[in-house]
Hints:
The complex is a heterodimer of chains A (204) and B (266). With 204 residues, chain A is of the alpha/beta class.
Amino acid sequence: xxxxxxxxxxxxxxxxxxxxxxxxxxxxxxxxxxxxxxxxxxxxxxxxxxxxxxxxxxxxxxxxxxxxxxxxxxxxxxxxxxxxxxxxxxxxxxxxxxxxxxxxxxxxxxxxxxxxxxxxxxxxxxxxxxxxxxxxxxxxxxxxxxxxxxxxxxxxxxxxxxxxxxxxxxxxxxxxxxxxxxxxxxxxxxxxxxxxxxxxxxxx
Amino acid sequence: xxxxxxxxxxxxxxxxxxxxxxxxxxxxxxxxxxxxxxxxxxxxxxxxxxxxxxxxxxxxxxxxxxxxxxxxxxxxxxxxxxxxxxxxxxxxxxxxxxxxxxxxxxxxxxxxxxxxxxxxxxxxxxxxxxxxxxxxxxxxxxxxxxxxxxxxxxxxxxxxxxxxxxxxxxxxxxxxxxxxxxxxxxxxxxxxxxxxxxxxxxxxxxxxxxxxxxxxxxxxxxxxxxxxxxxxxxxxxxxxxxxxxxxxxxxxxxxxxxxxxxxxxx
Lengths: 204, 266
């Protein structure tokens, strides 16, 4: 991907009750996002992925959002929602056609690719949803509570694997979590949505 | 080919039978007596009125009056398509998509059939044009309302799935593909079934009418086949057009899913 390693820049992005957001997400770095339920975290992620109407500008390096069709933008700026959906019968039908193995951190055998979607638990769905998003090699990653449905052990493994992927592939990433401890481990800074505005949290 | 005309007292005999049924229903307290009588009265009034309109139309035979009648039929059918939707498009789209699709398919198939296949003189001769258009509009209307209903309901139910597909970089066409195809299928199934069962279970209404009116069955059969084919073509292209336009309308220029362009009715 030519755009891998480019920063994701939000320029006066505004959606819903949230004030205009100016933010630069550096490649390979994770920015944490927190705030009470209903404060607009998910809507902000959706606006960045261009899934709902909003005002302001977004660009990936020098490439502006408007310079490409919606699906190409979302193919690069990938949002992984808190609850994933599956529409084919088998797991591998949701992955790129040449996928034969799964990342080890998932704790699932490669045969899981042949499993029927019906037999997946919510935790398995969440882990596989992250894997299918990484598998399309995005240029930027938006994660909405990526470990919310997981038990502590697999949450730890997923957390380490995700941070590694983001660093290695030089993706800018925005990571939404309720768990303040997790954000301190993975992110290099944290913003909190507070009363309709984005404020940096001081970690001292 | 002499047709036995029915006089009003002969119809009155049939009406007596309906009254007998109504009386029985009332005695058995079935609760349908009122609706039965109202429906029977409506049949008499509506058909008598349309008979007068057709008599006048056939007598005049002028193109602009026929066109006016066709337009009225189209708008009534368009309104009916809209009324049958559980989830409607906002604004003028709810009437517009169905009406425009019926105009494209039913009208062009009717005109094509008149000019190229049947060839009456003049081509718009109302004895041919109005019944043909009526058959086409009626069936196309069914196909389009079934197809649009399946589309909007399917998108409403599966909006999270469609959005998740968009999140993984699929185009709007890929994301809605399954819903779109099943919607077109839903619109086409009734007419395909009707073709497959034609003549086995019951004689199609138009053919029955033609035979009763004294036409040789061989001619009635040929007309029925022609009608079946044109109705299928009209329904097929109409449903395809309506579902395609509806699917497009559910996404904006950035290929975002816009369920806010639907409202739930009733």
